[in-house]
Amino acid sequence: MDINNSVALVTGANRGLGRAFAQRLLERGARKVYATARRPETVDLPGVEVLPLDIADPASVRAAAEAAPDVSLLINNAGISTGTDLVTGSLDAVRHELETNMFGHLGMSREFAPTLARNGGGAIVNVLSAVSWFGIKGANAYHLSKAAAWAMTNGVRLELAEQGTLVTAVHLGLADTDMAAGWPVDKIAPSDLADAALDGVEAGSAEVLADQWSRDVKSRLPLTPEEFNAAMDRALAALMAA
Length: 242
Fold this sequence. Notes:
The protein has about 240 residues and is of the alpha/beta class. It has helices at about 15-25, 60-65, 90-120, 140-160, 190-205, 210-220, 225-240, and strands spanning about 5-10, 30-35, 50, 75, 125, 165-170, 205-210.
């Protein structure tokens, strides 16, 4: 699909990657951009149409779909990271990450699928992570939620193919946002991530590996678990030492 003249809805558009998506959509000629956030008063980007939205609340998702019947491009960006492990961490926190990062994206896709069909098919972008593919101590709830979101994205892609809806999975290592502020490593600029994702949509790509980190991690998936974990330990050590 063509970004120019599209009507897009971006979740979590008040900061970070979501704000960058909304801004680049406007700059690339989108006819309308719905910028959504749990606290809509925090959206400060001129030129967007602001909507309240909590993706973990089905009633809020339904209200957003009713308020935006002209959407042709859905950007599922909103997400959380609680810094929780699976065995020793709070089970409520694990569930919260799954409810937001996987079920939240799935709920948005389910609610907006009929809208996209009515508007010619359009596209869904799910912002995932290289952590979809590997566990990391201190953030395994995030790993679980992103791995589940990756599987969900692959399933939704198959189910929506007949109505002509492109479903694009976007993977990245770290972006220069508040969520990654504690990591003293090289990070992709939010605007570069948004451009890579939107370029992928225009090219009809099912998957976008937005940076070298995500490309390197995916290339290791054919390894045995032992080989993979050893390779990731070396890569993480080199990343932190750089």
